Every structure is written in structure tokens, then in C-alpha cells.
Amino acid sequence: MKCLVILCVILGAVSGIRGEKCDKPEVTATAYVTQDATVLTNVAFTTQFTLKCSNGVKDISLYAECEGKTLPAVRLSADNKYQVSWTEDIKKVHSGNYEVKLYDEESYAAIRKAHRNNEDPSSVKPLAVVTVTNPGVYQGPWINSELLAVALAALVSYAAFSAKSKLLA
Asked: How many whole angstroms separate alpha carbon 60 and alpha carbon 57?
């Protein structure tokens, strides 16, 4: 019986430590977006960020939400470095800023509950927001080189036949 009480106290202490909230989060982020989509069907977005809490909390499980997609934030190292990655179809991608909202386990559970109860999930305040800037995706030249070559060949042929007909007339 004593062992059971000790085990419950230890588990309660560990769960209390793991359940700490991040106060005044500071996020430092870098991002990468696929720039050349001439042969791709999807554009990749990746952001790496470091989360610093004023109360020193580490090892927080984070979730991200961007453009209606819910994604896990993968912890890269013990010093609170995380990464969020996703892909979008080229036709749906727009240039400009994408807001990646970060949530801890408690706020993520609140979002899931809001979806389940058909409530507005935007009422849940994110832990932090990371902005990923997409300058635009290059999808190739406006005119393909093959089409330009055919048009120039037709123009040269027309000029040559016009000149020949004027000489013979």
C-alpha cells in the first residue's frame, strides 16, 4: 500500500511538471518556401523556430495550424527548437504571408473541442504566431521556347516567300 501511495505521488509530481504552461513565449523563426515550381506539382513550406518561455519551461508538445490545416510541430532538439512543414498544391498557393499559429496541448484540445461542437475555433488564443513569407513561385516563362521558335520560323518563312514573290512578279 505504501508503494502505491509513493507511486501516485511521483506520478502526480511528474504530470505537474509536464503540465506547466509557457509564460510570455518568444519565438525566433526562419522559413523556407519552394521558389521554382517549373517541374513540381506541390510547393513545400518549412519553418524552424526556437521557443523561449520566460518561466524556463522546456519540452512542450506543440501543434500548428495554417490555412485550416492542423499539423504537429516536431521538436528538433532539447533546447526548444521545433519545425513545422507542409505542402500545398501550386494552384492554391498565393504569394504573401502565411500565419502559422502555435498551440500547446491545452489550447489544441480546446480547438478540437470547438470543432467537435461546431463552435468558432478562432476564439482559442494561440501560444504564438510565426509568419512565413512566400515571395511567389516561378512556374516558367510566359511563352515556351518551342512556341517562340515555331513563331519565328513562320515569320522568317513568310518574309522569304513574300520577298521571292515580289522578285518574280
From this structure: 7
Grouping H, G, I as helix, E, B as strand and the rest as coil, residue 10 is helix
Question: Model confidence over 72-113: pLDDT tens digits?
Answer: 888 888 788 899 999 988 888 888 899 999 998 988 998 889
What is the pTM assigned to this prediction?
0.68
Q: Which are the contacts of 108, defined by CB distance < 8 A and separation ≥ 6?
A: 63, 70
Q: Which residues pair with 86 in a beta bridge?
A: 45
Tens digit of each residue's pLDDT (9 = 90 or more) over 23-54: 888 888 888 888 877 777 888 899 999 888 88
Distance between CA 136 and CA 143 in Å, rounded? 19
Output the DSSP codes for 23-92: PS-EEEEEEEE--B-SS-SEEEEEEEEEEE-TT------EEEEETTEEEEEEEEETTTEEEEEEEEEGGG
